[in-house]
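User: I'm preparing a small set of examples for a lab meeting where we compare how different chains pack in three dimensions. I only have the primary sequence for this one, and I'd like the structure in token form so I can line it up with the others. Please keep the answer compact; I'll paste it straight into my notes.
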Amino acid sequence: MPHVITDRCVGTKDQSCVEVCPVDCIHPAKNIDGEAAFEAAPQLYIDPDVCIDCGACVPECPVEAIFMDDELPEEFRAFLEVNAAYYRQTG
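Assistant: Understood. Below is the structure token output for the 91-residue chain.
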């Protein structure tokens, strides 16, 4: 079960989660995807096909935007698709 980043990340895009992710499944990241890609995205996203569900990112998020998908509050359920859609668009 992958983790999900919600819109609490919008406007913050703190990359502490990126730094601790052992499989680089959080994008866009400045050091991986470049400054332009990072600035163009409203928030960070977790690739559901790459996430190994380790949970390392959760305590690192200063705005508590990251949830395990089966613990996602109802008001954030749409972000399961939002995260997955980002990776379908970027290939």
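A couple of notes for your slides: Residues 3-90 form a domain with the Alpha-Beta Plaits fold (CATH 3.30.70.20). The chain has one domain: 3-90.

User: Perfect, thanks.
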